[in-house]
Amino acid sequence: MAPAQDPRPGAGGDRPPVSDQVLSIIGFVCAAIAVLFLPVPFGLAGVVLGVAGHARGEPLGRWAATAGGAGMLAGTVLSILLTPR
Question: Which one in 5, 33, 37, 84 has a CA-CA gap of 20 to 30 Å to 69?
Fold first, then answer.
């Protein structure tokens, strides 16, 4: 007899439910903050959290790491362009 399947989304073991993607979501928040404030620390935090989320099996982890790097780059370029000379 086969075990009963859990009907909840994400409960099948193939990927975590959205509520379990905390590291990736925080990584996206850090990426957004990196564009406007302190690009290097927040961008690196976004990359690290995205990679950690990806290692835990979160589907958005890779995207959060990419967004962290892009936010760091964009924030650095904006700070260079907007700094008065």
Answer: 84
- Percent of the chain as helix, strand, coil, to the nearest 5: 65, 0, 35
Residue 58 lies in a domain: yes
State the DSSP code for 38.
-
> Do the beta carbons of residue 36 and residue 77 sit within 8 Å?
no
Report if residue 4 sits inside a domain: no
How far is residue 30's CA from residue 33's CA, in Å, rounded to a whole number?
A: 5
CA-wise closest residue to 25 among 57, 53, 56: 53
Domain count, the chain: 1
Taking a C-beta distance cutoff of 8 angstroms, is the pair 64, 55 a contact? no
Which range marks the domain in which residue 49 is found?
42-85
State pTM to two decimals.
0.74
Structural domain contains residue 66: yes
